[in-house]
Amino acid sequence: MSEDAPKAIDLFCGAGGLSQGLTDAGFDVLWGIDSEENTKPTYDHNHDHEMVVGDIRETEPPDLGLEEGDLDLVAGGPPCPTFSLVGRSKINSLEGQSTTTDERHQLYEDFLRFVDHYQPKAFLMENVKGMLSAQNDDGEDVVDVISAQMEELGYEVTVKLLDSADFGVPQHRERLFFIGNRIGAENPDMDQWKTHREPKNEEEKQIKFNDAGGPEEEDQESLQAFSDTEEKEFPHFEESPGQREPWNTVADAILDLPPVSPSGDTPPTHAEEYTMGPVSKYQYWIRGRPGPDDWEGRTLYNHECRGHNMRDLTLYKLLGEGTSYIIGDIPEEHQPYRSDIFPDKLKKQNPKEPSTTVVAHLYKDGHMFIHPTEARSITVREAARLQSFPDDFEFPVARTHAFKQVGNAVPALLAQALGTAVRKKVLGVEEEESATLEADD
């Protein structure tokens, strides 16, 4: 990475989905922190900068070797489980504060404490959709309270709810983002950076084949195009991109991966090699390092499914296209759970749509993520693809920890879209400079 690359840190970094996306957007991520010890093997395996495990409430901002104000971006997704306790506390009163001194302490305040310390040119904070409708004990809108605290630190703030499917991720995942800058720039309007849209008809829901045989040989006019505009390499993020493509789907994301079976017979319970090349444009991209065409003999990481009992396997087989995708729609006598409370407790993912939101609960069971064509729940690799982690991003931990890390992550592709928008719109680092950075890496 070039010394001129914009610098960032990642708070509450987890396995590193946000770090991955920011790196792909041209940022040099210098440091990360997370409280979960099991995330460190994954983060260290996939990133080449320092990541520490610790309680951010008791962690002082480290010396990054930068002059004051030279950090370009503080990013992170602090958990905020108790919205009612969000108050108008002054950030400068948080120095040395812990949960033992103030039970109302919220982790987003530590995010702002790091912002106040480094005075970065910009910040990017992610949180759950529920914050939009939350109020504190005083009846104030939580989003307004937090935005006001950010503005007190000297930042112009924009708050936006985004669905990752609108940015090429094969998954519906709505998350709230706070974007701020203190350098007088205009924050990006992320509606203008969307690359994908809802399909207009059944034809647009079909898998988006990459007919040209790979990026190096591709003839742009021979690709199956969904617009009259010139085909762009995926992913391509720019403001006001023109015609958008239909959402990427579960089929686009995972159906090139070899089958696995919970029976342990044929096919096996896990696969360590690809058995065919990529088919869709998304698959070409996600296999893209070292190259999508160089797949024979390459290791396939984390493609292993959990075991299932015969009752679950039978129910899994029952669900699917032509019947129903959720167990709540089948006759009551076959319901394993109360249908009035858990209508979607068992859900088979529809291959013609983006997946439902990948959740950390996957580490407990996979009932809500049944494979679209096989009677089993999805593998870690398939969950990672739905979260837009590239195939060479390995999770070298137990399967339960891997599922949890994937489910908790910011989709890497959405992070790349946000990072690119901030880099171009706020920091003023244009495409030519980014290309130079990648060439120097």
TrEMBL record:
GO biological process terms, semicolon-separated: methylation
Family in the record: Belongs to the class I-like SAM-binding methyltransferase superfamily. C5-methyltransferase family.
EC nos: 2.1.1.37
Annotated keywords: Methyltransferase, S-adenosyl-L-methionine, Transferase
Chain positions covered by the region annotation Disordered: 187-227
Protein name: DNA (cytosine-5-)-methyltransferase
Organism expressing this protein natively: Halolamina litorea
Gene symbol of the encoding locus: dcm
Top-level taxon: Archaea
Compositional bias ranges of the Basic and acidic residues kind: 191-208
Coiled-coil intervals: none
Keyword S-adenosyl-L-methionine included in the entry's annotation: yes
GO molecular function: DNA (cytosine-5-)-methyltransferase activity
InterPro entries in the cross-refs: C5-Methyltransferase, C5_DNA_meth_AS, C5_MeTfrase, SAM-dependent_MTases_sf
Keyword Methyltransferase annotated: yes
Higher taxonomy: Archaea, Methanobacteriati, Methanobacteriota, Stenosarchaea group, Halobacteria
NCBIfam families: dcm (TIGR00675)
